[in-house]
Amino acid sequence: MAWSAECVAQEETVQLHNSRGMEATQRSTSVDVERVLLARSGEQEVESFMELTRRQVADLQLDDEVKRQAQYAVDLLSATAPPSYRDRLRCGKPRWQRFCVRVYWKL
Question: Which residues pair with 35 in a beta bridge?
Fold first, then answer.
């Protein structure tokens, strides 16, 4: 597995003034993290993307998130398409028959 990450932290200060001379200051922070994980098994390669935005670094919980995304990538490597199936839509009760149409699908 290989991965790449980008992290951006910002601090914003807002000062408010009203017509009565009242003043207030508010300071806030935000942290954005983007990560791309590449996993490969033989010739098959999959990519997992994660984007998080939190107000505090402590809220990121990166260890848990990276483990979860790594498991998604491993699961993608073993995933297969469902089998193809073709049949007509079956309506159970006669009162629904008028709403039924023939539908065919192939995956």
Answer: 5, 50
| Owning domain of residue 15 | 2-99
DSSP code for 95: G
8 within a domain of the structure (yes/no): yes
3-class DSSP state of 3: strand
Three-class SS state of 12 = strand
pLDDT digits (tens, 9 = 90+) for 26-63: 999 999 999 998 889 888 899 888 899 999 888 888 88
The span from the CA of 50 to the CA of 41, in Å, is 21
Q: Residue 25 domain-assigned?
A: yes
Spatial separation of the C-alpha atoms in residues 75 and 80, rounded to whole Å:
10
Two tokens at 87? 């049949």
Spatial CA neighbour of 28 closest among 51, 9, 1: 9
The amino acid occupying position 71 is: Q
